[in-house]
Specification:
The structure holds two protein chains of two kinds. By secondary structure, chain A is mostly beta strands. Chain A is built from no helices and eleven strands. In chain A, strands 2, 4, 5, 6, 9, 10 and 11 form a seven-stranded mixed β-sheet that branches. Chain A has a four-stranded antiparallel β-sheet with strand order 1-3-8-7, with no helix packed on it. In chain A, a hairpin with a 5-residue loop joins strand 4 and strand 5 (43-50). The termini of chain A are far apart. The mean pLDDT of chain A is 94. Chain B is mainly β. Chain B has no helices and eleven strands. Chain B has strands spanning 4-6, 11-14, 19-25, 33-38, 45-50, 54-58, 61-66, 71-76, 85-93, 98-99, 105-110. In chain B, strands 2, 4, 5, 9, 10 and 11 form a six-stranded mixed β-sheet that branches. In chain B, strands 1-3-8-7-6 form a five-stranded antiparallel β-sheet, with no helix packed on it. In chain B, a hairpin with a 4-residue loop joins strand 9 and strand 10. The radius of gyration of chain B is 13 Å and the shape is globular. The chains are: A mainly beta, B mainly beta. Chains A and B meet through strand 4, strand 5 and strand 10 of A and strand 4, strand 5, strand 9 and strand 10 of B.
């Protein structure tokens, strides 16, 4: 069964460093998402991406964040200058369409720890 | 601000019982409602979704939606210890159909 994959599974970085989180969505999916979950808190929407551009973003997704689809398979989230409060689990998700009944499939997540 | 409220629990039920999980939401524009299950340290996995008022059954799971009351629920029949997890309610909104998750209800099924 096709699945969303994410690398790395864990990332430890120093405050102020740049990190890139990678995702490989399901191959025929067209809509891509990043969510994050701070430990003990709810899953929060960050950004959605379609046709090589951002379609929606939340207030969390400020200028330190960027997303890119550098090739036909990868979808990346870059955090330019990490802060302590960026420590969280980051989930990538993908869906075939953006229909209201379309399921988003989540990857296993990348646990980011900023020291 | 779109709000999704769930009882945080923990909710404990004995094995074989019915577990009832509730969710209210603030955005009347939400069109579909997804229930995900999340085991500790893992990613959300889809249980089912509902978009029409009334009940929708899928195996041991039944979702109920009442748009007038802005209320959605999930019933789990014949609960199993493997059902022990956090259950996330997630209305869909926005042009990109992003999910707005509630904080989740922690369910424990006791053997």
């Amino acid at each position: 069964e096709p699945e969303v994959t994410q690398t790395p599974s864990h990332q430890v970085t120093q405050m102020g460093q740049e990190v890139i989180l990678r995702c490989v969505p399901i191959s025929n999916h067209l809509y891509f998402y990043w969510y994050r979950q701070i430990l003990g808190q709810k899953v929060e929407f960050l950004v959605s991406f379609y046709n090589n551009e951002i379609s929606e973003k939340s207030e969390i997704f400020d200028d330190q964040f960027s997303v890119e689809r550098p090739d036909g398979s990868n979808f990346t989230l870059k955090i330019r200058s990490t802060k302590l409060e960026d420590s969280a689990m980051y989930f990538c998700a993908s869906s075939l369409t953006s229909g209201a009944q379309e399921t988003q499939y989540f990857g296993p997540g990348t646990r980011l720890l900023v020291l | 601000q779109k709000e999704v409220e769930q009882n945080s629990g923990p909710l404990s039920v004995p094995e074989g019982a019915i577990a009832s999980l509730n969710c209210t939401y603030s955005d009347r524009g939400s069109q579909s409602f997804f229930w995900y299950r999340q085991y500790s340290g893992k990613s959300p996995e889809l249980i089912m979704f509902i978009y029409s008022n009334g009940d929708k059954e899928d195996g041991r799971f039944t979702a109920q939606l009442n748009k007038a009351s802005q209320y959605v629920s999930l019933l789990i029949r014949d609960s199993q210890p493997s059902d022990s997890a956090t259950y996330l309610c997630a209305p869909v909104w926005g042009s990109a159909r992003q999910l707005t998750f509630g904080s989740g209800t922690q369910l424990t099924v006791l053997p």
